[in-house]
Design goal:
The structure holds 2 protein chains of 2 kinds. Chain A is α+β, with helices and mostly antiparallel strands. Helices cover 37% and strands 17% of the residues of chain A. In chain A, strands 1, 2, 6, 7, 8, 9 and 20 form a 7-stranded mixed sheet that branches. Chain A has a 6-stranded antiparallel sheet with strand order 14-15-16-17-13-18, with no helix packed on it. A 4-stranded antiparallel sheet of chain A has the order 11-10-19-12. In chain A, α2 (55-65) packs parallel to α12 and α13 packs across α18. The longest helix of chain B has 26 residues, at 133-158. In chain B, 41% of the residues are buried. Classes of the chains: A alpha+beta, B alpha/beta. Chains A and B meet through α8, α18 and α21 of A and α3, α4, α5, α12 and α13 of B.
Chain lengths: 638, 442
């Protein structure tokens, strides 16, 4: 550890940087945070919302681990809504519109007051190497900061260029200068960089919209908070929905040559799932209209965000498109949409701890690592921050597993494949989606957060009792018989609308999708005494039961394979009998365990069998490792 | 680091405490074949199909009767952990015909075993630490051989229609899945699922799967061949017909009733299919124990026949073959050169004059090929394919479109089954599909 230096130096104070520095500081580390501007701490440069489907899962897990994103969202939230509520609980995606300014203020204050954090303005232009490690950073003003580990979270600032029509200017975000020195430095250190692109829509003045022509989009009747730290939240604003008319297609098609995306001006690769309006028109000509949401950016702000209209078309074309939309005829532009091109570090170069494979001491997180979204950034920031501290203390790393969490899916996906476009979390990325509902996030992640020391004992015990109670109720429902005698049948028919002709249990009745669980719950004291959320979780799990069995079996199998770690010095080519393709995949991706290896293309069941055999022999011929944490403490594996 | 316990992780790496079964010897006709069962359920399955198997006295060869297979087997029970896989293991050595082996395997599957994946016994053996340094070299060869065989097989089928049909079905499944997934992940972007579109896609996938499955019986017939069994009363000319159809003097022919005492088999090709022609002892009250055994074997052969040629000689006498219902029986009036009264339901054949022989060949050819639709001559669905397709069909059967996250689950598993058949992965394709066919915006 560097004397008189930091345990961790975080470069950037966006969503990744904030999550990393606060978690590291709460683990007791001394953390330095360098940001280009104190005004933009935890800024939301794109949509003023947190969560959603897949992303909301990340926020919930992060909160259960002890992260702060959910907590800040609850405090800055203006409208709360669970998306996909008509679907099953595994895919419910809590989302909140936020007050951008308030969000920044809350987190800047946290960074300024949390013990252990030094927040400072400055531009990092280079890294300091020493003894084969990264041991600090150089600032543009000549300062040199020493640290046991450095975490880069530069977002879209590395070599950032903004595009609007033919205009092209260096910038990390609207009105902010890019970071130019660091990119070449990373290249010189041997890291492979890529060029990505993303975009943002125009902002309109609140007073220039004809709201009577739009469809109101209210929040949920019962607003749901993200964090266990929050008692309650409330809806304070309305959002609005509009649809683009057909003429928008013509306007865009006629002006496509002026779009930097199509003129060849932009080289970076954008996210397919978050296309600009010009992309949508080109790729889906048969869609005659596109949905647009109008979302307020803050209580004290006149700015309205036009969700769905991300664009880098020239200003005059943006005006034509926006004003063609019913309700937006008189829209006044506060800011025009733009695209931003930026450098990212190809993520296969980091370990699952988010430390660079080739540069010990250097950690990466957030958009710099090729993700898109505040939630993905925060999750990576947490993983990097915690691991930087654990590594400095010589402790076992924090490695979330993909079969148990979206955080695990995120890290695993990033580290194990070569991504050519910004990565956004989707529930379809999780093989075991049914096990990973938001409702179970605390039960899944809190034990790890508690072990890390980021969840207070008292909170953990209260939660544990809840999970325990849920399990008891579930068992009780499965045990309580419902006999098909006439009286019971009539009662159940009246209550649940189904006729139990054969002996069953209350679990059997509740499992049926056509039964109104709330109605049944009202008559079953066992259920009625549970809090509404726990009741939903219990019934939800009952309904997934048959599907969950094989997921659990698969998860158990993977857990066994996960105990088989692949030694770092194993040369795949020297394993007798392994195919060239498998050896190549193992060499390139360096999977940590057999479970990770199994997912690699080219690694066949035969290769896995050989690998297991090889590891088994290595295990037998090696003396037991004393005190290496090999006694099953590779947490979190609750 | 690796956990130090030698049993914990290693007992079951293959996905669950299940019991696997497979033919352990090379495929193709042979004098003997070995069928191997391994896993925690072996004792129970053995108790069901062959109660004489005795795990109380393991590692000893024992002649046992095997239920439903119409024969005997030499059984060796290996008690865990002293077995090839380290689990309870049973090896049954049986007559090496494709039929006997496949019925035995099916009997085991019916009793709860699962057909093993390629290399699975070895994989379990490796997992259970049964292979030492020297044996590990053997594993390499064994696994290598398996993959080479797999590769050859895969290439053959890649060129064929089956792969195309599987690929096209899988493509449709992925498209359906992509639509379901998009309706889950992008509901906030105005992507509304079209219920009718989803339902009609699902129906189409189910149909395609059903029609593929319908070819599986035929496919197995192509792969394993068919058995044509000649039966009739003693001295009705069975062996003469056997030799005539083969074109060689394979069976001993004599004018004495009861000349053929055992079951004789020979292979020939009819309509492009491998046919095992079986000559049997005449069916009558046996005069001696040897003949009695011959008659018993003849009846067993009938039970396993695809086609039975039931002979009644012109000089009188007939017998009841007792063939199972699904077996095709062709009635033949043999020795038709002798004076006889015409029987409308019997085809007159004389091996002496050659009368009716070509006719019989033609009828036989038609019958044998009848069960095989014209599939381009390339479809040969193996049992592995059938099992995979059946599982996929079961998944789609329970696919619940009203609850898309569960419906997606079913389609995902169905697609995974097909992916396993063609050897590809699902997830990346799926995402490509999602992005290619949807307008998703933020």
């Amino acid at each position: 550890m560097a004397a008189a230096g930091y345990d961790l130096l975080v470069v950037g104070a966006g969503h990744a940087g904030v999550e990393a520095s606060t978690s590291a500081a709460r683990l007791g580390a001394r953390v330095g945070v360098v940001t280009l501007s104190l005004d933009t701490v935890a800024q939301m440069p794109c949509n003023p919302a947190m969560g959603g489907i897949g992303k909301g899962h990340l926020v919930a897990e992060l909160d259960a681990l002890g992260g702060i994103q959910g907590w800040a969202t609850d405090r800055a939230g203006l409208q709360f809504k669970v998306l996909n509520r008509s679907r099953g609980p595994a895919v419910w995606g809590p989302r909140a519109q936020c007050d951008k300014q308030r969000y920044t203020v809350i987190l800047r204050r946290l960074l300024q007051h949390l013990a252990g954090i030094d927040l400072m303005e400055g531009e990092v232009t280079g890294l300091v190497e020493g003894a084969g490690r990264i041991v600090g950073a150089r600032l543009a003003d000549g300062r040199r900061l020493e640290a046991a580990a450095v975490l880069l979270t530069t977002g879209t600032f590395l070599g950032g260029i903004l595009h609007t029509g033919g205009e092209r200017r260096p910038g990390g975000r609207f009105g902010e200068r890019p970071s130019l020195g660091l990119g070449p430095e990373l290249r010189a250190l041997g890291l492979e960089l890529r060029r990505f692109k993303t975009g943002t829509p125009p902002r309109l003045h609140r007073g220039s919209i004809a709201y009577d022509r739009l469809q109101p989009e209210p929040g949920d009747a019962e607003a749901r908070a993200f964090s266990w730290r929050t008692r309650s939240v409330a809806n304070r604003v309305m959002c609005w929905l509009a649809r683009t008319p057909e003429v928008v297609q013509t306007i865009i098609t006629d002006n496509l040559h002026r779009s930097p995306l199509y003129s060849g001006q932009i080289e970076g690769v954008g996210p397919r799932y978050c296309p600009s309006i010009e992309d949508k028109v080109v790729r889906f000509p048969h869609h005659r209209q596109h949905t647009v949401f109008l979302e307020p950016e803050g209580l004290d702000s006149d700015s309205m965000y036009v969700n769905g209209l991300s664009t880098s078309l020239p200003r005059d074309v943006q005006e034509q498109v926006v004003r063609a939309i019913p309700g937006f005829e008189a829209a006044r532009f506060l800011r025009y949409g733009y695209a931003v091109e930026y450098d990212v570090v190809a993520p296969f170069q980091v370990l699952p701890t988010l430390e660079c494979r080739s540069l010990p001491g250097l950690f990466l997180a957030g958009q710099l690592l090729g993700t898109s979204g505040y939630e993905e950034a925060a999750a990576l920031g947490f993983v990097a921050g915690v691991n930087a501290v654990l590594s400095a203390r010589g402790k076992e790393p924090f490695l979330p597993e993909r079969e148990r969490s979206y955080v695990g899916v995120l890290v695993d996906d990033l580290c194990s494949a070569d991504h050519r476009e910004p990565y956004r979390m989707l529930t379809s990325r999780a093989e075991h989606r049914l096990l990973l509902g938001v409702d179970s996030a605390r039960e899944r992640m809190m034990p790890a957060g508690h072990r890390l020391g980021l969840i207070p004992e008292r909170v953990f015990h209260v939660e544990q009792r809840r999970w325990q109670r849920r399990r008891e109720v579930r068992d009780e429902l499965a045990a309580r018989a419902v006999n098909p005698d006439p009286a019971t049948r009539a009662a159940v028919r009246a209550l649940a609308g189904v006729d139990p002709t054969t002996p069953t249990t209350w679990a059997g009745i509740l499992r049926r999708q056509d039964v109104d669980a709330e109605q049944v719950a009202a008559a079953l004291p066992l259920l009625a005494e549970l809090p509404a959320e726990d009741r939903r979780t219990v019934v939800g799990e009952l309904r997934y039961d048959g599907y969950l069995v094989r997921h659990r079996r698969e998860v158990e199998r993977l857990a066994r394979l996960r105990h088989l770690e692949i030694p770092i010095d194993l040369e795949p080519g020297e394993i007798p009998g392994i195919s060239l393709e498998a050896a190549d995949a193992l060499r390139r991706h360096r999977p940590r365990t057999v479970a990770d290896a199994e997912r690699l293309p080219g690694v066949t069941p035969a290769a896995v069998a050989i690998l297991i055999g090889r590891l088994g022999r290595a295990r037998d011929s090696r003396p037991p490792m004393a005190g290496s944490g090999g006694d099953g403490q590779a947490w979190p594996e609750s | 680091m690796v956990k130090a316990s030698s049993s914990g992780w290693s007992s079951d790496l293959s996905g669950g405490a299940d019991t696997i079964v497979a033919r352990a010897t090379a495929p193709g006709p042979a004098a003997l074949a070995v069928v191997r069962l391994s896993g925690p359920g072996v004792r129970r399955i053995a108790g069901e199909i062959s109660p004489a198997v005795d795990f109380g006295e393991p590692w000893r060869a024992r002649l046992v009767a095997v239920d439903g297979v119409g024969g005997q087997a030499v059984a060796i029970a290996y008690a865990a952990p002293r077995s090839y896989t380290g689990e309870d293991l049973l090896e049954l050595t049986v007559h090496g015909s494709a039929f006997v082996v496949s019925s035995l395997i099916e009997r085991c599957v019916a009793a709860g075993a699962r057909p093993a994946s390629p290399g699975e016994f070895t994989r379990r053996a490796v997992a259970n630490g049964k292979l030492d340094l020297v044996q590990a070299e053997a594993v390499r060869d064994l696994v290598g051989a398996e993959t080479a065989w797999q590769a050859r097989n895969a290439r053959e089928q890649l060129d064929g229609m089956l792969s195309q049909r599987l690929a096209s079905l899988r493509g449709e499944l992925l498209e359906l899945l992509a639509r379901l997934e998009a309706s889950l992940d992008f509901v906030d972007h105005g992507v509304e699922p079209n219920r009718d579109d989803l339902a009609s896609r699902l129906a189409r996938c189910r149909e395609k799967l059903a029609s593929l499955l319908a070819t599986s019986a035929a496919g197995e017939r192509i792969r394993d061949g068919v058995r044509v069994v000649i039966v009739g009363p003693p001295n009705s000319g069975k062996s003469t017909l056997f030799n005539t159809l083969l074109g060689t003097e394979r069976a001993i022919v004599a004018p004495h009733p009861g000349t053929t005492r055992d079951v004789l088999e020979a292979e020939l090709e009819i309509s492009g299919l491998r046919v095992t022609l079986v000559d049997t002892a005449g069916l009558r009250e046996a005069a001696d124990p040897v003949e009695e055994e011959g008659v018993r074997r003849a009846r067993a052969a009938v039970a396993s026949a695809t086609v039975v040629l039931e002979l009644a000689p012109a000089d009188g006498g007939s017998s009841v073959a007792g063939a199972p219902e699904e077996t095709t029986t062709l009635r033949v009036l043999s020795k038709a050169d002798l004076p006889h009264t015409a029987a409308a339901d019997r085809l007159p054949v004389s091996c002496t004059t050659g009368e009716g022989v070509d006719r019989l060949r033609a009828v036989l050819a038609e019958t044998v090929a009848g069960g095989v639709p014209d599939l381009g001559g390339e479809v040969a669905i193996s049992r592995r394919h059938r099992r995979g397709l059946e599982r996929a069909a079961a998944e789609l059967g329970s696919c619940d479109l009203d609850h898309p996250e569960l419906g997606a689950e079913s389609v995902r598993w169905a697609a995974r089954e097909l992916a396993e058949l063609v050897g590809e992965a699902v997830t990346e394709d799926l995402l490509d599909e999602v992005f290619a066919s949807f307008c998703i915006g933020k």
